[in-house]
Amino acid sequence: MEDKIWYRELGYYNNPFSIKPAAFTDKVHGYEELVNEIVTNIHASGLLFIEGDYGEGKTTILKRLINEFGGHRKVIYFSCNRIEQRLNVKKLLNDKYGFFGRLLDLQPKNMILLLDEAQMLDDKDYEKLMRYYESGNFLSVVFVGKQYDPTTLPERLRRLIKVVRLEKLSNDDAVKLIKLRVGSLQLLDDETIAYVFNKVGMNPRMLLKACEELCRMAFERGDKKVTIQMVDKLLNVKLNVDKAPMAAPVAHVKPVVKEEPAEEKLFVEKDEVHLEDDFEEELEAEEEVYEEKPKQEARTENNLQNPKAVAVEPKSSNSVDTDYY
Predict the structure, then answer these.
(1) What is the Cα Rg of the chain in Å?
(2) Residue 108 lies in a domain
(3) Which of 177, 211, 226 lies at the terminal end of a domain, its last residue?
């Protein structure tokens, strides 16, 4: 049986364990009160930093906020892992109005800025954002990252920002999360779900991935239920692979020094990686940013071999990987 249709044989049209944010609903299970608190702070023109580890629900919360405040192009979503120099806040604002916004330097007011992977920002980035916030361009700024570091924030931002830490879900929350996806699937009972959840370090995303693999395995073997022994066999192998020592790097990589561009004296953007309309494509686009340079080199080599080949202009280094809602 092919992997891609195993869940259809169990009665599901789509994979019930999809890790895409809000794949089935924008309800953030286990964090409902926290999301309500965040929404209230945004309405109150607040500055927030949502801190949480990989797979704990940060991106799903961002999707929930987009659904709450989007629809009038008042929300800017930007992933900071795309920038290798300075965050170009001016361009984020200009680009809401497209070509004329850039030409006439049009900058909207009272925008809601959602910054994913905010741990990539430094003190000058935060300083620039604070000035635009104080000028009224942003009604609220929500930073989302793995770790909050107050030493990178200017003092007046530290006084205003509210830090929200995503706590671990309980075993009951984990069971409810899976039950909302699969209903009364006989392959997985509550005890097994809780066991898997603890086995993967109480990480919701890893729980979904593990349950998907276990259910697929049980279906292909013809088993009627996922057993604790199956969980141990699968996850112990994966954990051993994850803990395998990695080879030491061959060469030392020189740290990148962020330079100030002419446009804002402080901020520069990286090559554009176009996001599709769906917010969840962000999870699958991380490797695309590295493909542009090899493509340009291939075009150059082709032009040298074929004089009639049409040269292709590379994308601007100041283009922005941004979504407006």
Answers:
(1) 23
(2) yes
(3) 226
User: Are 63 and 125 contained in the same domain?
Assistant: yes
CB-CB contact of 168 with 55 (8 Å): no
Least confident among 63-67, 112-116, 151-155, 283-287: 283-287
Distance between CA atoms of residues 16 and 182, nearest Å: 6
Alpha carbon distances (Å) from 101 to 22, 24, 90, 93, 278: 32, 36, 10, 8, 24
Compute the distance between CA of residue 197 and CA of residue 116 in angstroms, rounded to an integer. 26
- Residues 129 and 61 placed together within one structural domain of the fold: yes
Residue-range definition of the domain harbouring residue 98: 32-165
**Same domain, yes or no: 140 and 187:** no
Phi, psi of 50 (to 5 degrees): -95, 115
- Judge if 66 and 116 occupy the same domain: yes
Does the residue 42 lie in any domain? yes
Of 310 and 10, the one with more pLDDT: 10
Q: What is the pTM of this model?
A: 0.69
Q: Verify that 37 and 153 share a domain, yes or no.
A: yes
Structure tokens at 34: 């926290």
Asked if residue 27 belongs to a domain, the reply is: no
pLDDT value of residue 110:
94
Q: What is the pLDDT of residue 240?
A: 55
Is pLDDT above 50 for 145?
yes
Domain count, the chain: 2
Give the CATH number, domain containing residue 95. 3.40.50.300
pLDDT tens per residue, range 259-276: 554 555 433 333 333 333
Q: What is the pLDDT of residue 82?
A: 77
